[in-house]
Structure to design on (226 residues):
């Protein structure tokens, strides 16, 4: 899995991995859980460790039907854009003048080295935070530490209290840490709007000799016409 296997299957995570596997077996067999099991590690499949230029860290997956597909804040191209992602698009429009697309699929970001990671990677349908403290935090902490240990600069965009709590894991002075409230309608006006994270991220990457992220998501309709 793009060289993340050394972390996911390390001896340090063995006990946690086994407990989490049993928990997920029960959850997926007894009810509706998101994302689909084959998509749990989609973010890692699309963005390998050496590709990471930025990390957008969220809370847990979308919990409504058909939304979560393994990338934080992202949904499929045929799914209505959730309010949190719409607020992200509004901030991009304000910062960089990007138009708001007709879909919420963020795979383009992931393929450019933006690791779209949640602190918890699964959720019971319609029950936010239902898989909190079941073992995922140990796994994602290990992933964050691995990114922290990379020998090239990375931008960490921490949105919301669960993400900001991971700041203590980011000790490499080469990295840039950006913090903001979660972009949900409940907190977006407390400082997410106007945070400038996307512009700051690209300025930092350019200063360190890296290509900036192309944040513009294209319209599905436009893609079909070309």
């Amino acid at each position: 899995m793009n060289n993340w296997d050394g972390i996911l299957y390390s001896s340090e995570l063995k006990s946690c991995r086994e407990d989490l596997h049993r928990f997920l077996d029960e959850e997926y067999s007894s009810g509706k859980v998101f994302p689909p099991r084959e998509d749990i590690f989609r973010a890692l499949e699309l963005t390998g460790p050496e590709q990471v230029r930025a990390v957008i860290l969220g809370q847990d997956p979308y919990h409504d039907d058909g939304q979560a597909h393994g990338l934080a804040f992202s949904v499929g191209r045929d799914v209505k854009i959730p309010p949190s992602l719409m607020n992200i698009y509004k901030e991009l429009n304000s910062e960089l003048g990007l138009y708001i697309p007709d879909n919420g699929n963020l795979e383009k970001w992931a393929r450019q080295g933006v690791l779209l990671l949640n602190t918890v990677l699964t959720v019971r349908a319609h029950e936010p935070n239902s898989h909190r403290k079941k073992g995922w935090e140990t796994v994602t902490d290990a992933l964050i530490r691995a990114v922290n240990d990379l020998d090239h600069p990375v931008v960490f965009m921490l949105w919301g209290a669960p993400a900001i709590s991971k700041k203590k894991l980011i000790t490499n002075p080469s990295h840039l840490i950006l913090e903001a409230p979660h972009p949900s309608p409940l907190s977006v006006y407390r400082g997410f709007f106007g945070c400038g994270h996307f512009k700051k991220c690209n300025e930092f990457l350019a200063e360190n000799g890296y290509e900036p992220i192309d944040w513009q998501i294209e319209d599905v309709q436009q893609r079909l016409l070309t």
